[in-house]
Design goal:
By secondary structure, this protein is an alpha+beta fold. It contains five helices and seven strands, in the order βαααβββαβαββ. Bound molecules: coenzyme A. The site of coenzyme A (COA) has 18 residues, from strand 4, helix 4 and helix 5.
Length: 164
Amino acid sequence: MEIRPVAHGEGTLLREFRLRAVRDAPEAFYLPLDEEEKATVDVWERWATSGAETADRVMFVAAEIGDWLGMAGCSLRSDGSGVLDATGMWVVPTARGRGLGELLIDAIVDWGRHRGAVRMEFAVTESNAVAIRLYRRLGFEPTGRRRRLESNSGLTGMFMTRAL
Ligand SMILES: CC(C)(COP(=O)(O)OP(=O)(O)OC[C@H]1O[C@@H](n2cnc3c(N)ncnc32)[C@H](O)[C@@H]1OP(=O)(O)O)[C@@H](O)C(=O)NCCC(=O)NCCS
């Protein structure tokens, strides 16, 4: 199993993996499936940076013998604040509980530190106890900011953060 950035030319695979994730866990994603489906391969190809030094974003996948088992990405804010926004964390149901979530976060943290990021932030659905427990274990705390999910107005996302 390796954690690696999505490579150039893998935008189609990434789009399919993302849609699989949204279908599996819609409550974990801000946008509904029909909005996610509107994002073309070009959009996902932009995340396929191969970890280039100048890239402002990266999407990591956990890959095992060619199969993708999980993903998580992040982007550096362009306002010079040094904040890294993490997004799109998902592990296929059959690979959960193996620590892939933590490895994916570690990869994001390393990538951000290498580029001078000082803080990481993301939203997690308040009812997602498994994810929140994982993030707390890794040192993330709620910021107090919350927002309703566009995919489900009955659900609220809360932002969590940690210094890098
Ligand atoms: C949240 C998520 C990414 C965690 O990934 P993971 O690789 O399973 O993470 P871990 O291996 O560290 O396990 C986290 C917890 O899952 C639970 N878990 C263990 N085995 C599991 C299994 N087979 N199935 C489901 N959950 C399991 C455990 O309670 C574990 O907590 P622990 O630290 O007390 O053991 C994953 O559950 C997931 O993709 N969920 C749906 C999408 C989602 O919620 N994304 C986060 C959006 S912010």
